[in-house]
Queue: 2 jobs
Job 1
Amino acid sequence: MSKTTLQTVAQTRRSVYALNKTLPVSKDDINQIVEHALLHTPSAFNSQSTRLVVLHGEEHDKLWEIAKAELAKIVPAENFAATEAKLDMFKAGAGTVLFFEDTNVVKGLQDSFPAYADNFPIWADHASAMTQYAIWTTLASENVGANLQHYNPVIDAEVAKTWNIPESWKLRAQLVFGGIVSPAGDKEFAPVADRMKVHG
Ligand SMILES: Cc1cc2nc3c(=O)[nH]c(=O)nc-3n(C[C@H](O)[C@H](O)[C@H](O)COP(=O)(O)O)c2cc1C
């Protein structure tokens, strides 16, 4: 069997860290990609608990300045230069997608289906992860580089204040995107035989 289009694109998705602000597609194209993933990614009980905020340009820059300010409060001063350099690398990108899960939706499901109560927060994270992957891979198909970050919960309060985020939205991840300055390096693969079994 030859590779499907989806498989070919899946192989182009990598963690690309050297990004710039020059995108090969328009801002509107990025918004369309994010919206498409939001609509077409599955969720437990079709609960659609994922919430997304797209930050372009100066709003994206603001996010990474917030991360710097918040991390400066907790990272020892002698280590902060390295932290700042890393955060500047993200700021050098063109934009960031913020992934939230609406805890009100999760609570509603827990109340309606108590037998599955423990699973709903886990399934909400699964749905978020699927949405993250869909966006990351579709961006790769358009030659937009991206990397996935997790500065939550350190930045949660400032993010909520800055972009008027509802209290029930819980930040789960940040996907930084931009033009590709240099591609990801080689990737090592652990043996498939240890990771996948086929029976029958
Ligand atoms: C659930 C999850 C969490 C991750 N968290 C981070 C992160 O916080 N920071 C980061 O730089 N990369 C993060 N990554 C990226 C992984 O390090 C990366 O996907 C992995 O090394 C494989 O490389 P590739 O993305 O180029 O295929 C995360 C990936 C996943 C799936």
Job 2
Amino acid sequence: MESRHAQRKNEHLSLAAKYYNQVHHHYFDQVRLIHDSLPELSTDDVDLHVQLADNLTIENPFYIEAMTGGSAQALKINRQLAQLAHKHHLPMATGSLSIINKDPQAYASFDVIREENPDGIIFANLSANATLEQAQEAISLLHANALELHINAAQELIMPEGDRDFNWLDNIQYLVSELNIPVIVKEVGFGMSKTTIAKLQTHDVHLINVSGRGGTNFAAIENRRNHDLNFESLLDWGQTTPESLLEAHSIRRGKTEIIASGGIISPLDVIKAGVLGARAVGVAGYFLNILQQDGYEQLDQTLNEWKIIIKRLLALLGCVSFTELSRVEYVLGTDLLSYARQRHLR
Ligand SMILES: Cc1cc2nc3c(=O)[nH]c(=O)nc-3n(C[C@H](O)[C@H](O)[C@H](O)COP(=O)(O)O)c2cc1C
């Protein structure tokens, strides 16, 4: 019999699959790239490496975003994802390791990620209220290359057993100052505003994953798990990923690097996120859905295709690197343009 923490992880996996099939909006359609018929380079000129921090360079601009850990089912999924991350040289973020403090049996489901991918890039994932000891333990368990801290107030408030205390900034700043690996602060699918990003910047966070609305919907997932309160009115809460990237675009970057995730379902979405200023792109629900519905071989093939297509799209746009995408021209659809104007982002 698994612990109730492990059961929650299993519910997340099954509900994520259920609601992923009900996603109808594709917000990246609101971004159209301008074609240049004279790229003047060859695909051989394109280099997919991206430097995210002094000691963090990734071989591909997209990666497997934080999902699971803590149950037998999570162990199986993490093993498969880690094998594919290893094979395709993709970074992989773990699900939240907060569970290992409550349920020691959870260790194995995280351990397997490093076991299957001994020399790959792994991001450990914890809640923003993690203690320094918890962060150090998670990093050493995985020999992690970076630590993701998730900020998920909307999810926690809808979750029946969720946290109700969201004083995170000072703790985040403390962890950033004490840890000797890069720290990424990420949302979980509700997006970020320029106010959020500015607050993170003033608390010394330089890697920010806006993780916006448009894919996995934790309002829907937690509302389904909540049998006492109905949060249906929050199903559209938060900024979409393109909106969040425009928010990020509008503020002074300094040394801040922006990462995108949330509703990424194609190589073109990865490219569009890069055009809107993302340095790298995380994908969770879409890859999980392929793995759970169509199996390991299909995800293997998809990851291979994405790498090839992203390289060709960079060549088509005349860019030798992912970072160069920020100079590609684009136009916005009516809804996104209206959002940008009302928020004074353009
Ligand atoms: C089953 C599942 C579990 C998740 N668990 C975590 C988690 O533990 N920590 C975290 O930071 N994000 C978690 N996420 C959120 C993703 O990392 C990502 O921010 C979000 O799903 C948006 O990306 P997507 O639309 O590609 O799924 C989870 C996502 C899924 C699908």
